[in-house]
Each structure stands twice: as C-alpha cells, then as structure tokens.
C-alpha cells in the first residue's frame, strides 16, 4: 500500500435544485480509501449513499469539496471508475458477450488486438461463471445472471475503483449469497478497490474491510466507520457462530437503529445487542423499512 | 373436418387438434365478418339510386375489376404490337441503307388502372422514403437535445395538422418555378406529388423518433457516460436500438398518412396515379363509372393494408424485443 491515499473524498457537499430552493443532500463527506480496500456504504434509504457513489462515478458534480483518485481530480465519468448498477443496466438488444464487448472495445480499442479482446471478454465472463450463456440476451437469462454479466462488464474495464450500487438488492437470498461468494473470490484474485452500497447488514460485514455508516439526510454525512478485521477468506457458515462477526453486526445495527433512527419510526431496540436471534429479525425488519421508505426519499435520485 | 382439408392445411401447422380452435379463430371468424359486410353492402347498394344508376354492389365491382384487367391486357397487347411494328420498320430501313436515321418513339397509349396503381405505389414509396430520410435523423437530433426540442416543437405542432390540399398549390408553384430542366429526370407531377406526400407524412416519424430518443432510460445513459462513448457510438449503440419501437410506430403512421395524402393530391393536381383514375372516372360519368371507382376504393384499401403489414414485418425483423406483441 502506498503512502499516498488512493481515493479521497474531501468536504463533499451537494445541493439539488428544487422548486422550493436548493436541497442539501450531502454535507461535508470525508472519506479516505486505500488501494484494494473493500468499503461498504450503509445507511437508511434516502441518506445519500447513492449520491456519494454517483459523485465518485462522476455522474454528479459535488457542489463543494471534491474527489481525488490517485492525486487526480474526478469531475466526469470514466471507465476507470466502473459502475455496477442496481438493475444491471445491460443493453437489452445485445447478448451478454456483446454487452461486455461494448465496454472492452471502448477501453482497449488501442491496446488490444481483436483476438486479445475476444479472449479478455471470455475470461471476464468466465470469472463470473457466465461463459455457458454468453450468447444469450438479457431477457433470456435470470436476474442473478444479468447481475453477473453487469459485474463482468465492470471488471472487463479493468477499473481502478469498482463502484457497486446495491448490486444484489433485487435478487433472492440464495442467488445473492452465491454472488457474494463469487465477488469475494474475484476480489481476492484481482484485489480491486470496491465501494459498495448495501442495505444488508450481513452483506456489509461479510464482504467489507470497512463499513461506512451514514447519518440520515438531509445534509447527510459519514456517521461512523467500522473496521472489519475478519480473516479472509471468509465463509458465511463458519462466521454465523463467530462472536467477532456477530459483534460487528450488532455494531452496525445499533448505529442504524439507536443512533440513526428514522424520524417517527418506532423500533424496539432493547434486546438488540444481547440476542443474536433478535438481531436476525432486526436485520430483516431493516430491509423492509428501507424499502418502504425508499419512495418518500426519492429526491436524491432525481 | 375432412382428411382432405387436413392434408391441405398441414403445411400451415394447423392439423393438430389443439390448433382447430386457432384455425376457426384465424379463418372462420374473419370470413364470417367479410360475408356479413358483403351482404349488407349488397342490400344497401340496391337501395341507393344515383344519376349514374344504381350504386355498385359486390357483383358489379367484381365485373368491373375483370373489365379493368382486360383493358389493361388489351393496352399491353397494343403496346407490344406498336413496338413490333416500329422495330420491323426500322429493321427494314436499316436493311436498305445501313446509315439510315431511325426513329424510336415511346408508346403513348393511355395509362390503365394497373399502370396507375404502379405510379401511385412508386410515388408513395419515394415520398415516404424522402420523408423518413429527413424525419429520423432530425428526430434523433431534436430528441437528444432539450433546447432544440423546445425550439422546434411549436413549428412541428403547427405544420403537423396541415392538410395536403393546402400545401398542394404552393408545392405546384414552387416546383414549376425551381425544377426547370430540359431533360428532367422525373416528371414534374411526380416531384409535386412526392413533396406533398413528404410534407404531410414527415411529422409522425419525426415526433415519435424524438419522443423515443428522449425517453431512453437514465441507466443506459449512465452506462454510456461511464464508458465515455463518443456521440456517434452513443447514438448507434444505445439511442437508435432503444428508440426502434417508437421509430417504427412513427413510420407506420407516416406510411398510412402518405398513402391517404397521395390519393387526394393526385386527384386534385391531376397527377398520374390512382387519385387521377378516380377523378377521371367521376368526370367520365358512364354507367360503369361508379363500379370502377368502387374497384379503386377497394384496391386503395388493400394496398394501404398491405403496406402496413410490410412495415409490421420489417418491424418484427428489426425489433430486438421478440416478446413484445406487435399488431
């Protein structure tokens, strides 16, 4: 790891214009990320997690403050900060192969020959275990497979930072678990820097080196940062009974429920940190409340 | 159903028991509808008396369509005979004197019903292509740029509802003023019809393309931004494919309008084509005229229907979303 910070967000503010004046979605967000680190952003819906990601991606411009990637300022989107979108965002008229090809042709048009590109596309589809269906169009494959192709497309750009916006949010629990395992394998292999938004406390603890917990909006900012010092490779079954792992989960839950309870929301938090089984239910509840409050906080998506 | 009929239907995959219901749905029900229509038409026609005699019923129309076909064949024979005579004459001249000047004249017989159909089809397709060639690129540019859209939208809305008949005198005058050539590649009447058709059928394609282009999902736009696609690649790889369904909706509306406009324009401007045929028959005023016009009405309808089916087939071929139901 170099002494210089790999990715740095300094004093990031963002205002969105609304008919009733500017809406301050983020206020003074500061974050430093090292090369190869896996960082999760967690927080209640509408707290501006996606906005942070979009600013790093260059799709939004910070009103104040800025972002440095390897010492260079970020102010437009680019393939070195590949994004995996929540709803896969594959082009529906192209096959899995062609979707990845579009990205590869764009990034490597001057540095790879045709044969090399083909090999590289196939290699990336193999990484996500999609080589058997690479000539199928998105409407012919399942949601989990689409998301795999989306990840392959991002990986194929050889990004310095991979940005994942709730990549597994729309998937069923089993598929999600499979993809999380795949992602951990790939991350161990390639050692990419990853920023991932998630709603899922287990996912955050399982995958991350650090969990960034955000306060509620408006004017959201970084609340707490939790270092997850669990040994890799991590296995979900072994960790289920691991005291350390459950301690981390409890810490995230207590932040979300006790310190950043959504206004007007009544949640029983008494037995939270003592009982594991209780926190299991809480995790489920969290996801439910997340979804129900997603709509009322849609300003930031606009 | 008899085994004979089953054998006949085999190539259409209609022999299965399951498909019997589908067969009834696909053939019997529409046929019944047509028969009912013919019956009502027949009764109605007998009760309408005009100065040119009874309104033509299905029988007269059938009779006249045979006549029109026969006239066409006679005209073709005359034409062939004319060229034969001319060739013979020239051959004789050349036999006498190899340096003799020979004249080749085109046959100038009157255009038959079938010829008029051909003229109309060529004109409508030319006008439609010209309009599409302008409307699709313009629609893409306007759809991608909100400022341009706001700037041009009032103009488009203003011209969209204008009838072809209003344009026609202007177009005729402009064409006669500007399209001056000793040896014109196209007849003036053709150019006039073409421009009138184009002016009227431009708008649905333009608007639908613009709407299709501007309603591309934000996620796909973000993909394009992250990949830093150039403007042209963005248009070719993302904008056009996602706007294809809307573009085709526009094209089909446009072709329908083009066909309707053309008949009206030909009628009013006396440009060759089906419209002129109808007008000529009306002026002719023989006892057969109404029947012949009715043949034209049905042919116009059939051609319009066929043009739409062809566009639909094209759309199905081009469309990436094979699950989408097109009708």
TrEMBL record, chain A:
Membrane topology: Peripheral membrane protein
Subcellular localization(s) per the UniProt record: Cell membrane
Record field: compositional bias (Basic and acidic residues): 261-281
Domain ABC transporter as annotated: residue spans: 9-241
Protein name (record): Nitrate/nitrite transport system ATP-binding protein
Keywords, comma-separated and alphabetical: ATP-binding, Cell membrane, Membrane, Nucleotide-binding, Transport
Region (Disordered): 261-302
GO CC, one annotated term: plasma membrane
UniProtKB/TrEMBL annotation, chain B:
Entry GO CC: plasma membrane
Keyword set, alphabetical order: Cell membrane, Membrane, Transmembrane, Transmembrane helix, Transport
Subcellular localization, as worded in the UniProt entry: Cell membrane
Transmembrane segments: 20-41, 120-142, 162-180, 187-206, 226-244, 251-269, 289-307
Membrane topology annotation: Multi-pass membrane protein
GO biological process, one term: transmembrane transport
Predominant place of localization: membrane
Chain ranges of the ABC transmembrane type-1 domain: 117-311
InterPro entries in the record: MetI-like (IPR000515), MetI-like_sf (IPR035906)
SUPFAM superfamilies: MetI-like (SSF161098)
Protein family per UniProt: Belongs to the binding-protein-dependent transport system permease family.
Protein name: Nitrate/nitrite transport system permease protein
Organism per entry: Amphritea atlantica
């Amino acid at each position: 790891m170099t002494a210089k910070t790999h990715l740095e967000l300094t004093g990031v503010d963002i205002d969105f214009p609304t008919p009733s004046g500017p809406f301050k979605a983020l206020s003074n967000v500061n974050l430093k990320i090292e090369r190869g680190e896996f960082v999760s952003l967690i927080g209640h819906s509408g707290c501006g997690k996606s906005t942070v990601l979009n600013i790093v991606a260059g799709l939004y411009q910070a009103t104040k403050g800025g972002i440095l990637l390897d010492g260079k300022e970020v102010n437009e989107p680019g393939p070195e900060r590949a994004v995996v979108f929540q709803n896969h965002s594959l082009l529906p008229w192209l096959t899995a192969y062609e979707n990845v090809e579009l990205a590869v042709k764009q990034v490597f048009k001057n540095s790879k020959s045709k044969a090399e590109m083909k090999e590289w596309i196939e290699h990336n589809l193999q990484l996500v275990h999609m080589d058997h269906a690479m000539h199928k169009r998105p409407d012919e494959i399942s949601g989990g497979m689409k998301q795999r192709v989306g990840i392959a497309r991002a990986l194929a750009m050889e990004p310095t930072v991979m940005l994942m916006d709730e990549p597994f949010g729309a998937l069923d629990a089993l598929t999600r678990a499979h993809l999380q395992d795949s992602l951990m394998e790939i991350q161990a292999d390639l050692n990419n820097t990853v920023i991932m938004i998630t709603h899922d406390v287990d996912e955050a603890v399982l995958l991350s080196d650090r969990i960034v917990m955000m306060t509620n909006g408006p004017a959201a900012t970084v609340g707490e940062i939790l270092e997850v010092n669990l040994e890799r490779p991590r296995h979900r079954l072994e960790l289920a009974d691991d005291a350390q792992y459950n301690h981390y989960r409890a810490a995230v839950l207590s932040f979300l429920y006790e310190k950043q309870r959504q206004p007007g929301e009544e949640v029983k938090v008494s037995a939270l940190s003592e009982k594991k089984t209780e926190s299991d239910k809480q995790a489920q509840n969290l996801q439910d409340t997340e979804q129900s409050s997603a709509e009322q906080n849609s300003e930031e998506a606009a | 159903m008899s085994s004979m009929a089953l054998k006949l239907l085999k190539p259409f995959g209609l022999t299965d028991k399951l498909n019997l219901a589908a067969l009834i749905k696909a053939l019997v029900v529409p046929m019944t509808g047509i028969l009912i229509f013919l019956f009502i038409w027949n009764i109605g026609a007998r009760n309408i008396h005009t100065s040119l005699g009874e309104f033509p019923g299905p029988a007269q129309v059938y009779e006249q369509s045979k006549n029109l076909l026969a006239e066409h064949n006679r005209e073709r024979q005359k034409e062939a005979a004319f060229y034969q005579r001319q060739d013979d004459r020239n051959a004789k001249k050349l036999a006498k004197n190899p340096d003799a000047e020979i004249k080749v004249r085109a046959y100038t017989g009157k255009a038959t019903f079938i010829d008029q159909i051909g003229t109309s089809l060529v004109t409508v397709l030319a006008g439609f292509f010209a309009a599409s060639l302008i409307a699709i690129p313009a629609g893409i540019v306007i759809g991608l740029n909100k400022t341009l859209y706001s700037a041009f939208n009032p103009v488009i809305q203003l011209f969209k509802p204008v009838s072809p008949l209003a344009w026609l005198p202007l177009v005729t005058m402009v064409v006669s003023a500007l399209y001056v050539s000793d040896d014109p590649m196209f007849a003036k009447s053709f150019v006039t019809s073409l421009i009138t058709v184009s002016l009227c059928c431009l708008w649905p394609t333009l608007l639908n393309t613009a709407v299709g282009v501007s309603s591309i999902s934000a996620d796909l736009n973000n993909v394009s931004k992250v990949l830093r696609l150039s403007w042209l690649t963005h248009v070719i790889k993302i904008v056009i494919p996602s706007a294809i369904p809307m573009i085709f909706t526009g094209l089909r509306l446009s072709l329908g309008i083009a066909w309707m406009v053309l008949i009206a324009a030909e009628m009013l401007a006396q440009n060759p084509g089906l419209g002129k045929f109808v007008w000529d028959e009306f002026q002719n005023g023989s006892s057969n005229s109404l029947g012949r016009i009715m043949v034209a009405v049905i042919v116009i309808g059939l051609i319009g229907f066929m043009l739409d089916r062809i566009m639909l087939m094209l759309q199905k071929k081009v469309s990436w979303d094979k699950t989408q139901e097109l009708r």
